[in-house]
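Please fill in the sequence for the structure shown.

STRUCTURE ENCODING:
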């Protein structure tokens, strides 16, 4: 293995997907819906690969199928409030993963520092390292503001610490809002602090907004690229998998000013080169349809969040009832919870892992048949201890499966 991948051999996904296969738990681990995507989206895919236009089964334009980049530019021009050029400012990728990869690879070299907020979607760290960069980590801190349940908004950025991390070597900062796994939806004030530092130090902001439509009232998703002076220095990343509940389609995108997009485009054309045509066609049609009803609550961009809200509340309730302490998310479809009030119910001596959250989640998959994800996977090695008391559960599941999860926990406790 080349040096650039040393230390990145382990993946929580590889490990926990295998664990689920072996132990057959109720799976609230890896994030994916267990219910059907909107009909019009899946029908569009069937039509795209069987219809009269047989060329939809052949290669398409490398930086993105024309119909899809047009739809994306139309959508984001509208929500960002400026005209986005589909030819030079949008790149379609193999999932948001490849959008992150192309952006990080295309904008990071040896000696560059990249600021990453902890917890972070785990692939950021190996991507920065394999690009030759040095990740610099800053953990969110739980600062509970009042009585009642903990909210993802109680997980705060330490502004002084953040400011002290920017220097002349800082190349970029990766921001994820709505956040996986905390569910934090960054506020205008928080984004402004980050934006001001980016402008002061001439830093690129890589804004991972894959959960952009999954935000719970009264919270609002604010796009980094809409902040004053930030379009010029932001690449925003999105995912059709999240937007349309089709994670298996692995189609994502990056958009930003042409000057910044040249680099990820160069990476993309020299690795993946072009993504699946029929899937891009179907996603394009999906966007066209949803854009035609963006003024209606039926639009999937809003209806999915409406559907998820009671699931979130139900999960927060049953986790609390068994004694865990959940952080109620403002966005996204994950919930972290402190499991340690139940520590006397588990026998962690049976597990060999280094961190307690790994021991807990493995023991639970095997013995209680409920799977979650150990959130220390989302921290750098020196900071993993900060989150060992927590587990992450996914709530984009059928009500009956959430009900089963509640019953499993109640029976066990
Ligand atoms: N970023 C975040 C924060 C995610 O949770 C995910 C989900 N895997 C991705 C990026 C990657 O998305 P995709 O499945 O489209 O590659
Ligand atoms: N984003 C999803 C999660 O956090 C999927 C992760 C993955 O497939 N690597 O669970």
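FILLED IN BY: designer on duty
SEQUENCE:
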């Amino acid at each position: 293995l080349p040096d650039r991948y040393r230390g990145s051999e382990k993946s929580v996904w590889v490990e926990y997907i295998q664990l689920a296969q072996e132990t057959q738990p109720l799976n609230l681990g890896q994030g994916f819906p267990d219910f059907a995507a909107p009909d019009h989206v899946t029908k569009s895919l069937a039509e795209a690969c069987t219809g009269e236009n047989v060329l939809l089964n052949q290669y398409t334009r490398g930086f993105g199928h024309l119909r899809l980049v047009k739809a994306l530019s139309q959508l984001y021009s509208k929500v960002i409030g400026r005209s986005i050029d589909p030819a030079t400012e949008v790149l379609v990728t193999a999932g948001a993963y490849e959008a992150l990869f192309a952006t990080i690879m295309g904008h990071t070299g040896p000696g560059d520092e990249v600021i990453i907020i902890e917890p972070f979607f785990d692939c950021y760290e190996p991507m920065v390292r394999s690009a030759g960069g040095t990740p610099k980590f800053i953990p969110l801190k739980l600062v509970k503001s009042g009585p009642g349940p903990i909210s993802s908004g109680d997980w705060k950025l330490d502004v002084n610490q953040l400011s002290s991390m920017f220097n002349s070597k800082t190349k970029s900062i990766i921001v994820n809002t709505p956040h996986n796994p905390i569910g934090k939806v960054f506020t205008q004030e928080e984004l402004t602090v980050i934006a001001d530092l980016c402008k002061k130090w001439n830093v690129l902001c890589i804004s991972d907004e894959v959960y952009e439509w999954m935000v719970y009232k009264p919270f609002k998703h604010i796009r980094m690229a809409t902040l004053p002076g930030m379009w010029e220095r932001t690449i925003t990343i999105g995912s059709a998998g999240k937007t349309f509940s089709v994670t298996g389609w692995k189609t994502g995108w990056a958009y930003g000013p042409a000057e910044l997009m040249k680099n990820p485009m160069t990476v993309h054309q020299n690795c993946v080169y072009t993504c699946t045509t029929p899937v891009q066609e179907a996603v394009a049609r999906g966007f066209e349809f949803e854009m035609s009803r963006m003024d209606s609550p039926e639009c999937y961009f809003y209806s999915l969040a409406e559907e998820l809200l009671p699931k979130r509340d139900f999960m927060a309730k049953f986790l609390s009832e068994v004694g865990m302490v959940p952080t109620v998310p403002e966005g996204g479809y994950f919930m972290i919870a402190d499991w340690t009030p139940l520590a006397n119910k588990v026998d962690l001596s049976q597990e060999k892992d280094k961190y307690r959250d790994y021991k807990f989640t493995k023991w639970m998959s095997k013995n209680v048949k409920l799977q979650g994800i150990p959130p220390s996977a989302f921290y750098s090695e020196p900071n993993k201890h900060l989150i060992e008391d927590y587990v992450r559960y996914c709530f984009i599941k059928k009500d009956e499966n959430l009900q089963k999860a509640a019953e499993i926990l109640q029976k066990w406790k």
